[in-house]
Amino acid sequence: MSLVENDHMFREFLDHQDVREARELGAAFVRNVQDLNDDARLDMALETASKLVVSDEELQAAYKAAHAAAMESFTRCGAYCDWADQASHFVARATAALVNPNLENNRIWQVANTCRMARNCAMLADGEDAINPEVAVQYRLLNEFLESKELLS
Question: What string of DSSP letters covers 47-103?
């Protein structure tokens, strides 16, 4: 496979990964925005997602914790929500999707896009008007992943 340089190539690769590799890559995406949320439950869920071998029970517990964090952060994002709260909520949503025991390949696309939304919200909270760098970072993470698996041509 050649270097990933656009979302078409990006999604094509994500759609053809087995669950373990998809979760490994998704964990890298979430780790890159993890600083936008300080909920310890998400740290635990991300650690679970990063394991090479994980039991169904561990995955279910991580999902319940991350889903609860996402729901709690959603309730803070009412009519008067600020962008930092919204960024935190998107990190929680991405983490919950990552550890969902019923992970489907297109779920990693959801994880990637939810991480992008988190970064957009954080940039708005900080008053930045630059282009979101998260897409380029995700391409780099995927290319590094492919290189580590010796899949780049």
Answer: HHHH-SS--HHHHHHHHHHHHHHHHHHHHHSSTT--HHHHHHHHHHHHHHHHH-TT-
Query: pLDDT at residue 130 above 80?
Result: no
Report pTM: 0.89
Determine contact, residues 31/145, Cβ cutoff 8 Å.
no
Other Cβ atoms less than 10 A from the Cβ of 147: the count is: 11
Phi and psi dihedrals of 54, rounded to 5?
A: -140, 135
CA distances for 7 relative to 18, 45, 75, 101, 131, angstroms: 19, 27, 32, 26, 16
User: What b-and-e string marks burial along 96-105, b requiring 16 or more CB atoms within 10 Å of the CB?
Assistant: bbbbbeebee
Cβ proximity of 90 and 6 under 8 Å? no
95 in Cβ contact with 69 (< 8 Å) = yes
Q: Which residue has the tokens 């959801």?
A: 110
